[in-house]
Amino acid sequence: MQNNLFNHIFTRDVLRTLTQISWQRLTRGKPRTDNFYTISSHYGPRSVNGHDDRFRFIGSFTDKEGTLQLSNVTLMDEGTYTCVFTLFPSGIHETAIPLIVPGMIHSKCCSCCVCMYISIRRDLIENEQLFIYNKCATINLECAKSLGD
């Protein structure tokens, strides 16, 4: 039913201030890089360049978690999602998350999608790619950036 795009930033330097978390995508449905979601302390979470009800912010700006929830994933969602943290004074830090949707699995007994729950840590994803096998799987993507390095 839903898929999570998870981004969390870790910082050992308390002098760095998070000013914005942005999400970009380059997908089958959006063949040009599209800035589609931002989260800021002043404006909160908001869609940009058109609203897509399937995306919902479930992270915490205060905790530097940029988690987006994506529901009803389709083949048109396949592509690369990039989470961008804007920090002052150090600038931007970004992580790209490839998302591959090879097809749908359907139940033969009831002609409906077979739902399953999958939790995947980014460091365990083979070849930096995530495969979603059906549109109702719930998947957690984690991209982390250590800013102290």
Q: Structurally, how many domains make up the residues? A: 1
What characterizes the major β-sheet? 6 strands, mixed
C-alpha Rg, in Å?
Answer: 16 Å
Q: What name goes with the CATH superfamily?
A: Immunoglobulins
Low-confidence blocks of residues:
104-129, 131-149
How many individual helices?
A: 0
Instruction: Please give the order of strands in the largest beta sheet.
Output: 4-3-2-7-8-10
Net shape: globular
Q: Kindly state the number of beta strands.
A: 11
- Overall mean pLDDT: 69
Topology pattern, helix = H, strand = E:
EEEEEEEEEEE
Helix content: under 10%
CATH architecture: Sandwich
CATH class, anyone? Mainly Beta
Structural class category? mainly beta
Q: What distance lies between the first and last C-alpha atoms, to the nearest angstrom?
A: 37 Å
InterPro entries: Ig-like_dom_sf, Ig-like_fold, Ig_V-set, Nectin/Nectin-like
Keywords: Disulfide bond, Glycoprotein, Membrane, Repeat, Signal
Protein name: Immunoglobulin V-set domain-containing protein
GO biological process, one term: homophilic cell adhesion via plasma membrane adhesion molecules
